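Box 3.1 A note on notation
Throughout this textbook, protein chains are presented in two layers. The first layer is the amino acid sequence; the second is a token string describing backbone geometry. Keep the layers aligned when reading.
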Amino acid sequence: MVYFVLTTASRRVIGPMPFPNASNCATRNQALRRICPLSFKQKLLMSRIRKAVFPVAGLGTRFLPATKAIPKEMLPVVDRPVIQHVVDEARAAGIEHFVFVTGRNKGAIEDHFDLSYELDRTLKDRDRASELAALARDLPAAGTTSFTRQQEPLGLGHAIWCARYIISDEPFAVVLPDMLHHGKVPCLKSMIDAYEEHQGNMIAVYEVPDEETHRYGIVDVEGGNKASLPIRGMVEKPKQGTAPSNLAISGRYILSPSIFPILENQPRGAGGEIQLTDAMVTLQKSEPFFAHVFDGQVHDTGTKMGFLTANLAYALDHEEFGGELRSVLRGLL
């Protein structure tokens, strides 16, 4: 039996009580946690995913002249901008803090997630209650959004690193707005569920044609039929015919904050940029990674064909005019 001093100032002793085993330490009360504290890694693994990073600093040059004055993330897919679709996905997954890594000329994104007094006033005066309600539903709660700048276009890894002080020491999600995931269950929601089961870094993947693997980051996985598979390796845009699989990274990640010091010292990779994939390869030497196979369609709205396809897919699934659009398309074809 041992006695425990819980108040240093008074040196008051309470006890005796058995020394707790490490196996049941996580379920003891707060006093026991002081005696047998969880390690940093244990705390990390038990942490809930509360924050998501949205890299939105890209110039959108593939969509010029449409993106000359409008951020590409504000281009609409049906009746909602691309960025709203991915924020909706994050909210459905339980994300509480939305971190946007922006650049110059991206002020429209901040405005979109803010109150618009003049618009609200006009809608109210005109009795447009349904539109007012829709705007209110999409508005994040006060204090749940953060915006930070990526001052130089140094790649995705650098953009994630720019959010390091906002994320701090929590595991976090990364959501690439260009990649819309269209399925029955939101991609990030199913990833967080898998994270809670596997307690490791997660990367969303989807199958692509073998002849297109050179365009994507590709993962090499251990065999199996499960939705989440251990990752053996990763490669960014492998040469045609050399990819270890046809599972492409689809722009959704759950990462440990251990990625930040790696990114800080990461040499520039492909395109002279700091590549997130390169940093994950380094992190994989000390922490497990899992590939989460998304059950649904993935649309790369960063390409013109992907943007058009996303609009068609979301519009055909829209309860208001999906049926009418099918008739229109049949007439056009």
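The CA atoms of residues 165 and 199 lie 23 Å apart. The mean pLDDT is 84.
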